[in-house]
Amino acid sequence: MNAWLLPGVPAVAGAALAVAGRRADRAAPALGALAAAVTVALAVAAAVTRPAGTVRLVGGFASGLAVDGLSAALAVTVAVAAFAVLLFATGDRPGAEARFTGLMLIFTAAMLLTVTATDLLLLLMGWEVMGAMSYALIGFWWRDPGRVRAGGLAFVTTRAGDLGLYAAAGFAVAGAGGLELAGLAGAARPWRDLAAAGIVLAALGKSAQLPFSFWLSRAMAGPSPVSALLHSATMVAAGAYLLLRVQPLLAATGWAATLVAWAGALTALALGLVALAQRDLKQLLAASTCAQIGFLVLAAGAAAISAGAAHLAAHAAVKSLLFLCAGAWLATLGTESLAALRGAARRDRLAGLAFAAGALSLAGIPPLALWVTKGAVLTAVTPLSLPLYGVALAASLTAAAYSARALLILWARPAPGAPAGPPRDRRAGAAPLPGSPPRLRARGISPAGRVSLAGLALGALGFGAVALPPVADAWSRLTGSPPRGEFVSPAELAVSAVLALAVLAAVAVRRHARPAPAAPPAVRHGDARPDAVRHGDARRAGRHRGDRAGAVRRGRTGGGTAGGGWQAGRYGRYGRYGRRALGEWLWLERAAVAVAWRPLPAVARALAWVDDRVIDGAVRGVARAAVAVARVSGREGEGVLDGVVRGVAGGVAWLGGVARRPQTGQAHTYFAQAAVALVVLAVVIGAVGAACSP
Amino acid sequence: MTENPLDLLPELLVLAGAVAGLLTGSFLARERQRAVAWICGLALAAALAATGLAAGRPDGMAFGAYALDPITHTARAVVAGSTLLVLVLAAPWARGNRRESELYALCLLAALGSIALAGADDLLVLVAAYLLAGVPGYALAGFARDARGTEAALKYYLMGAFLGVLMLAGVTLLYGLSGVTAYRDLAGRLGQAPAAAVGCGLVLLLAGPLTKAGAVPAQFWVPDAAQGASRPVAAFLTTVPKIGAFAALYRLAAEPFAGIEGWRVALALVAAATMTLGNLAAFRQDDARRLLAYSTIGQAGYILVPVAAGGPLSAPALLFYLAAYAVTNVGAFAVVVAVGRDRLADHAGLARRAPALALALAVCLLGLVGTPPTAVFAAKVLVIASAWESGLAWLAVLLVLNTVASLFYYLRWLTPAFRAAPAAPPGPARSLEDPGRSPRPAAGPYGVAVLAAAASVLLGVGAGLFLA
Questions:
Q1: What residues form the membrane-spanning segments (chain B) (predicted)?
Q2: Does A170 sit within 8 Å of B203, measured CB to CB?
Q3: In a domain? residue B31
Q4: Cβ-based contacts of B388 with chain A (< 8 Å)
């Protein structure tokens, strides 16, 4: 088959849907699912036939697509995740379905291009389109400025990282004479190190690793299927994939691999703690995405490509499953607050069971998928460094803790006094404006959505088969990693399993020991203020940080600690600060705004001041001096100065005449400045000539 | 060296088009002057075709003073192509004007001057070309005969005249020092002359091409002329003369002055100052034309980078950038012409009223930033590579910084265009502002905008082919 078909089919289908606009709204979800199904078939075919294609885009650089083992695994993962999400979304009505489906398909196509590109140029194209689509999708409900700002924040943050990739492309040309990803490791120093630094920067930004993690928190403002796709197999996975792909380069530099491994491990630990402190289901899942991608980044740093690819695929299945469940509850119950979602899993057994499968897998409970893949990553880390292993192990404990917490809250008995149904929506009859979030939905998950959830749940459960030695061998061969020792050590698996079960039990015991709380405040206010409930997520994810801080504070004082799982009063002042820091994602966004964004206008103002006062003043002074010199030279007579200087002096004298006549507008200033600049140029030429000649 | 007038066929065709247009125009009734536009357009198309033929022949020299090489060929093609686009832009606006035919003829003459600037291989030809590229431009700037147009023309003229005089002084000085004016002889003779005098001569000579290129320190006319002149003329003045000027600068840098110490440093400083100043000044502009004017200054800084670099990659980088810039800049101005209003706020809701136009605007503005896959992106990559290989790493870094900064003001324009329009547009409605009460936008500018945007993308995607 032709390699270009793989990204081409979803791209063309998506573009056609996006261009067709409102006319295609009715047919779009089904067409989107169909296109995604075709993409799955293409991805499988590509994984079997391993096509390749090249094209010359710029200069003499060959660009191309090729499907090798790693790409094959990734392409199938991406295609399947996209299919599952789009299948689920056939039951959703986000408004403007054609645009939505079209953007999702283009997004998928961009990710497929990214994972199959063999050179930096095509990779950059896919990378950029993916960033643009993420902006459009996160801000999809554009009538809410908060959501648009969330999209902008995601775009600007990942773009800031992307600059590293552009720089890396330049360094690659300088050092390796080409843009091929495979040739990067052989580049000359110092270009190799610079290219590695650029790629690492871009990958950490795209993957929302520390210190860029905050954009993922805001990215929740998009429709739930967007979160499900963006957090699983695309976007955040792209950074990790890139690091896995250029692992030889990281290893060749001698420092980048270590740096990447530590960045991944620390993100996994810090964001795992952040996830533990969230009071909102989607925020919890977002933080856990950062943490799990941290394991991928760690795998790239530890040269465990097969383990990383396995973790990526398994995590994609688990996380899209969890986000789809969260989205289903948001659509029917109108809330994402953990406190208000207490017992939600009991309403719809299939969604509840699917969520349980995903959460248990995320917790690392044997014999589920992430237990094995995380164990494989940890196995690869063990021989490298003991402190690194310790951090990673601690991170996997936090994963068990936050998964257990979410699972236990969602499966808890509903609080006494909580309303049985969703909060009433006074405007339920009116259709929402296009570009606004849809109204609450009375009916549950569509049949297609159920199929999708069941399929993903099977993936979350069944991918654990990779622990079996024959499967592990086949996977290692497929993803092209040299068989370096065993894929996953039994001892590691045993340790992980025991620890995960212990944490699960501890969380369960703690929750059980606590008295059942009163009905959570969000639902209690629900009837009085339907907007606040329904748009609560937008407010929190949206306008500004204070809102979320307010929500957290209100929750604590209002007796709404039911979902918190932590009681503030038990900790001292420092504990409270730490708790707030975790709840607000370590204040990363505030830090980024303060350090990177705020200073820019200040610098601009300072430059403007310098321009107004210093440069203009100097120009006027020089012009006056030039006039004076011209007058003096005129008196001294023609013999002293040669013709050139006379010409210049005459010109400047004429300028002086012009400068005294205000009615010529600004032309005098123009002339004076031009003349002064030319004199400066002449001085530069003279000075350089004098410096070079002697 | 040859003495065959047919070597100058493209130039002669443009000249013939201008003369024939003027003559025809003086015999035609006012409402039938449109025929002149067709004559001039055909002449430009013929010149394009002749360029295509000439590009196949080996490089050479015509009359000992006019180079026939890829630089001249590219300049011919780009100038003729962008002038053709500008004619389409200008035709609806000029219709019924008492001097309609003169507008077309002046455009052709200025375009001829720009081509001659690019081909000049002798200081005297350079001076003549400078005047030919400039004088019709002064008339064009004031063509509308309104107060702002007159001011624009006056400022453009004053700048051009002042710096032109300096340029003449430079030519005189260099001739006095070397005794020759042909580029190929200058290089050898200037070696023996006093370095300080040669440096002064160079700087004075530089003033002329820098004026036409709109680079520091001669950039002052650009914003005033772009804002004051009528919109199609602004598109012309900020595009066509620049092409010839940059080619002339490159030729000067590569042939006679390659060996002079400090010359490249000075050019690099000019490039750095131009891109920085243009981009910084564009930040707070609320007028689309003034914003585009400063953006063209910024672009001029980028285009000067390969001139200053002078490595093996420089010529392709420069020529490709010129083509990419011409297409993209004309496209952006075409949107302004089609919308018929200048304030950025007036573009609010453009995506709703005219989606194709808004898309063209997005492609052109993002193209000017250098976003893949547009043409300027490929050109910028080449420019950065050429700066890097010549050891001008700091300039490449500055270019990247400027590119990042430039995104800000382009987005200040794009964002309102893709937002919903205010409920009732203030002020009297014209053209696109109120389709109900005013005539539909002229198809010409609309088409030019879309065509230029498409060309920008195609050129970017096909960059490999064009450079091969």
A1: 12-29, 36-55, 75-94, 103-120, 126-144, 156-178, 190-211, 232-253, 265-284, 291-312, 318-339, 359-385, 391-411, 446-467
A2: no
A3: no
A4: 170, 174
Distance CA B206, CA B245 (A): 10
Q: What is the pLDDT of residues A545-581, one digit of tens each?
A: 433 433 333 333 333 333 344 444 455 666 677 777 7
In a domain, B316, yes or no: yes
Distance separating alpha carbons of residues B18 and B108, to the nearest angstrom: 6
DSSP B174-194: HHHHHS--BHHHHHHHHTTS-
Higher pLDDT, A351 or B244: B244
Kindly state whether B139 is in contact with chain A, defined as any CB-CB distance less than 8 angstroms: no
pLDDT in tens, A628-683: 766 665 555 444 445 544 554 444 344 333 333 323 346 777 888 888 888 888 88
Cβ A651–B269 below 8 Å, yes or no? no
Q: Is B382–A59 a contact, with Cβ atoms under 8 angstroms apart?
A: yes
Q: Contacts of residue A60 in chain B, CB cutoff 8 Å?
A: 468
Distances in whole angstroms, Cα of residue A511 to Cα of each of A280, A322, A418, B222, B338: 18, 22, 19, 72, 67
- Burial (CB count within 10 angstroms: exposed 0-12, middle 13-18, buried 19+), residue A601: exposed
| pLDDT tens profile A415-427 | 665 554 555 444 4
* CB count in 10 Å sphere of residue A609: 10
Beta-carbon separation of A674 and B196 below 8 A: no
Give the residue numbers spanning the domain of B465. 263-468
The span from the CA of B393 to the CA of B387, in Å, is 6
Judged by CB atoms closer than 8 Å, whether chains meet at A644 and B371 is answered as no
Using a CB–CB cutoff of 8 Å, tell me whether B201 touches chain A: yes
Q: State the amino acid at position A115 in one-letter form.
A: V
Token readout for A260 is: 């990447």
Helix (H) or strand (E) holding B67: strand B66-68
Task: With a cut of 70, say whether residue A162 has pLDDT above it.
Answer: yes
Residue with tokens 């289903």: A328
Among A654, A685, A688, the strongest candidate for a mutation testing the B interface, having the largest count of B CBs within 10 A, is A685
If you average pLDDT over every residue of chain A, what do you get? 76
Does B280 contact A at CB distance below 8 Å? yes
Ranges of chain B with pLDDT below 50: 425-439
A61 membership: H or E segment, kind and range: strand A61-66
- pLDDT, tens only, A470-497: 777 777 777 765 555 667 788 888 888 8
Q: Report the distance separating Cα A298 and Cα A373, nearest Å.
A: 13
Confidence band, pLDDT 50/70/90 cuts, at residue A368:
confident
- d(CA A500, CA A401) in angstroms, rounded, equals 8
CA atoms within 13 A on the CB side of A503: 25
Which of A643, A673, A685 is closest, CB to CB, to B266? A685
Q: A670 contacts in B (CB within 8 Å)?
A: 155, 158-159, 220-221
**CA distances to A155, A548, B414 from A597, in Å:** 14, 21, 21
- Among chain A residues, CA nearest to B277: A611
Alpha-helical segments (H) within B418-468: 443-461, 463-467
At A16-50, the pLDDT tens digits run: 888 887 877 888 888 888 999 999 999 988 888 88
* Partner residue opposite A686 with nearest CB, options B196, B464, B468: B196
Q: What are the residue ranges of helices labelled H in B218-354?
A: 221-228, 231-237, 240-254, 263-281, 288-309, 314-339, 350-353
Mutate which of A681, A684, A692, A693 to test chain B, going by most B C-beta atoms within 10 A? A681
Would you say residue B229 lies in a domain? no
Contact B261 A678 (CB under 8 A): no
Question: Hey, which residues 346-385 in chain B have their CB within 8 Å of chain A?
Answer: 371-373, 378, 381-382, 384-385
Please give the tally of structural domains in chain B.
1
- Calculate how close chain A gets to B109, using CA atoms only, in Å: 26
